[in-house]
Design a protein that fits this description.
Order of helices and strands: HHHHEEEEEEEEEH
Low-confidence stretches: none
Structural class: alpha+beta
Radius of gyration: 24 Å
Number of domains: 1
Number of strands: 9
Number of helices: 5
Helix content: 25-40%
Length: 259
């Protein structure tokens, strides 16, 4: 037997090579979904941790201020919990606006303001990374009553909670949530308490926790809420009317109490 024959016998045939490639492809197709789910779970866990830490800061602020809650109304308000508008290119990545918020002194980690699954906002057809992914319930924190009812659908509801003692069931009302990049701007999340309209949007997409969002509550606990109503998967823009949507109704019920 000559050396060329020996080399040919030791090498792979084309059929063997194709079999190996096919096997690798099959294994990859099986592994990628598993790895994707693991990544999603890790991001969701991190997001929950962020909101728990923000809950602690929120409660510490109230403890230091005789029960008064950090404010959420953002316009011309130095007392707001966080500053910055994520739709403005010069503010979306400005960490100083996080530092200027009333909660920052209680936890100086910038990372707890950003969801790891948040890919950024689109400004002038470009995706811009943001420093913040979370917004606060528009009913949390006092404001000048002369501003009027916000939103206009809230006339039969408590106008706002200025102090922690005013929240009768803190475990049932949310404080902050993971907001969708298609609606996030300031730190003031508009929610329709009548459950008719998605005014602002909680994170609602496959890349943000696989069609779920995180939120924290007045007693300090955080949770993951998964979308179940098929209409939720069709929402593309803020101000989408969907009366009867069970996901929308669930969020509305946990937003504010009736008068």
């Amino acid at each position: 037997m000559n050396s060329q024959q020996t080399l040919r016998q030791r090498g792979f045939t084309l059929l063997e090579l194709l079999t190996v490639i096919a096997t690798i492809a099959i294994l990859a197709s099986l592994l990628f979904p598993v790895l994707g789910k693991a990544k999603t779970k890790a991001q969701r866990t991190s997001c929950l941790s962020n909101l728990r830490q923000l809950s602690v800061a929120w409660m510490l602020y109230a403890d230091d201020n005789h029960g008064f809650l950090p404010e959420s109304y953002p316009l011309n308000n130095p007392e707001v919990w966080v500053q910055g508008d994520m739709t403005k290119a010069d503010e979306a990545g400005n960490a100083d606006l996080i530092r200027a918020g009333k909660l920052f002194v209680y936890n100086t980690s910038l990372g707890i303001y950003h969801c790891p699954a948040d890919q950024g906002v689109t400004i002038d057809a470009k995706v811009v990374p943001t420093v913040r992914s979370y917004s606060m319930n528009c009913f949390m924190g006092g404001r000048d009553p002369s501003i009027g009812v916000i939103p206009v659908t809230a006339r039969d509801f408590v106008p706002f909670y200025a102090k922690d003692s005013e929240i009768a069931e803190p475990s049932q009302l949310w404080v902050m949530l993971d907001e969708d990049e298609r609606s996030i701007n300031d730190g003031f999340f508009l929610s329709d308490p009548t459950g008719q309209v998605w005014m602002d949007l909680p994170a609602m997409s496959s890349h943000r926790h696989d069609w779920s969002f995180t939120l924290n509550f007045g007693d300090g606990h955080s949770s993951v809420w998964r979308f179940a109503d098929q209409r939720s998967f069709q929402v593309k823009l803020a101000r989408t009317e969907q009366p009867g949507n069970t996901d929308l109704a669930r969020l509305a019920a946990a937003t504010v109490a009736r008068k």
